[in-house]
Specification:
alpha/beta, Rossmann fold, 7-stranded mixed sheet, two-stranded antiparallel ribbon, 16 helices, 15% strand
Length: 496
């Protein structure tokens, strides 16, 4: 799972449903009805996306003709490509419960499944000597991929809204030591749109005189897990700290849950690591989870740089009249330059000149110590009621319009569209080892922190989100953050 908020990676093992079970007249029915319905919606959406893309290109352009000159059976070829593509999406587990609603992991599975199908189609067309141009075949897959991803995005947004209302959640029972269950319960249920409804906990060391763990009822001990999970109608049992419980107990628990058709998930002892960096392998009959080191150079970063410049150039072209209007407002509303230029620390600690529309009185930096008082400049300092801000500046800052000139920093290669926000040298000088990892990627015009609460978050939360992004970023995640940024800018949420 790749829920940004929780920072945990349960590894899910789904047991087959057997006819036998732990009989109990009071057992509740599992709540997986929504999951089956949601999977069907995704399947229908994928079918529509693939069919529209393949059929539209095939029948509009009439490109399938054999090299030897005779027509091929175009309808049969279209059906074959559609079927192969849908099979590829199914084999890639793009509708598996572990990735549904997860965002990046789900989108990446759809991308890789489509890419593999395209390569296979190109190889087959060459072997059987079909005159299908690679460009036209690629057009089908690009169009189908875009439609499929848009469909997934729409359904994911719908799912998150339903979860915020308390529905479409998997019922879970937590298992582990008291402290571990307490921490896990807080992470899983501490936000709107949580994927799990925590029905109870089975703890190995129940606190004397207490029937609750972080507000979650204690419904049994380690020997009662399967029975208790069935009684509450659980879909999944999540084990916190499986290393402390023991291999034999985990294996026995898996057998018990297998009888009930309840999934088993183990929470790894890592935080803020995306699923794309985890690999599970069986070495010497022992499941080993490999955590890949983050990569801060190479083809992916080149692709990100190209993406940044193309999008930044397009946005600057589209909003050029608005930039001129904002510049005029800044010029006439208070004396001083239109642009505020400041030295910030960027990639690998290099200094660059960041641009902003001026939102404070001219010479505001000379009054910084006066405004901050005895507290001085701390990491991520930002006074809530800063008297140096002009009237027009308050509006610009509320909707982040003062940041728009940083698109030119992106075009110059000094910044990225998405990344940790750049800071001044006095802030960077106070970084600890964790915060220093913010400097391993280019600073961004927006970032995970900015779309997760902005100024309302604590510095510790902000650093954690920035480092999480730096170590796990992807272009698909950038697109999602940019889309959320537009929403945040329009509402002015969390800004001052």
């Amino acid at each position: 799972m790749t829920q940004v908020h929780a920072g945990i990676e349960p590894v899910v093992f789904t047991a087959p449903r057997l006819s036998r079970g732990l009989d109990s007249p009071q057992a509740a029915a599992p709540s997986v009805g929504w999951l089956s319905a949601y999977r069907r919606r995704l399947l229908v959406t994928d079918m529509v996306a693939v069919t529209v893309a393949v059929a539209a290109v095939s029948f509009v352009l009439h490109e399938e003709r054999a090299w030897w000159g005779s027509d091929v059976n175009r309808p049969a070829l279209v059906v074959t490509v559609i079927a192969a593509w849908l099979v590829s999406l199914g084999l890639a587990n793009t509708r598996h419960r572990a990735v549904i609603g997860g965002g990046t992991a789900e989108y990446e599975r759809v991308f890789h499944a489509s890419w593999r199908c395209l390569v296979l189609a190109l190889a087959i067309s060459y072997v059987v000597r079909l005159e299908i141009g690679p460009g036209l075949l690629g057009l089908k897959f690009v169009l189908g991929l875009v439609l499929a991803l848009v469909g997934r995005l729409v359904w994911r947004r719908w799912l998150l809204r339903q979860r915020a209302l308390g529905s479409c959640r998997s019922t879970a029972v937590l298992v582990g030591h008291h402290d571990q269950v307490t921490r896990l319960a807080g992470e899983l249920a501490g936000h709107r749109g949580a994927a799990f409804e925590i029905a109870g906990a089975c703890v190995t060391d129940p606190a004397p005189g207490s029937g609750l763990v972080s507000g979650v009822p204690v419904i049994g001990g380690l020997g009662d897990v399967a029975r208790a999970a069935k009684l509450v109608g659980a879909d999944v049992v999540i084990v916190a700290g499986s290393d402390a419980i023991g291999d034999d107990v985990i294996r026995s628990l898996g057998w018990d849950l297998e009888a009930c058709g309840i999934a088993l998930a183990l929470v790894l002892g890592v935080r803020d690591v995306e699923g794309a960096r985890l690999r599970v392998s069986g070495e010497d009959r022992v499941p080993v989870v490999h955590v890949e080191a983050p990569v801060f150079a190479g083809p992916r970063h080149l692709a990100k740089a190209v993406f940044d410049r193309i999008v930044a150039a397009a946005v600057v072209t589209l909003i050029a009249p608005a930039l001129l209007m904002i510049a005029l407002v800044v010029k006439v509303s208070s004396p001083g330059p239109v642009l505020f230029r400041q030295q910030r620390i960027g990639l690998n600690g290099k200094t660059f000149e960041m641009l902003k529309f001026r939102s404070m009185v001219d010479g505001a930096h000379l009054r910084l110590e006066e405004v901050l008082g005895a507290d001085g400049v701390g990491v991520f300092y930002k006074p809530r009621n800063d008297p140096r801000i002009t009237r027009s500046g308050r509006v610009l800052r509320k909707y982040s319009l003062d940041e728009l000139p940083q698109l030119f920093n992106v075009l110059r290669g000094e910044m990225s569209l998405v990344g940790p926000r750049p800071q001044i040298a006095r802030e960077v000088a106070q970084y600890d080892r964790l915060a220093h990892r913010r400097l391993l990627v280019k600073p961004g015009c927006t970032g995970l922190w900015q779309v997760s609460g902005r100024s309302e978050l604590t510095p510790e939360e902000g650093v954690r989100l920035d480092v999480r992004y730096a170590e796990n970023w992807s272009i698909s995640a950038d697109v999602r953050i940019l889309a959320r940024t537009v929403k945040v800018m329009m509402t002015g949420e969390g800004a001052y």
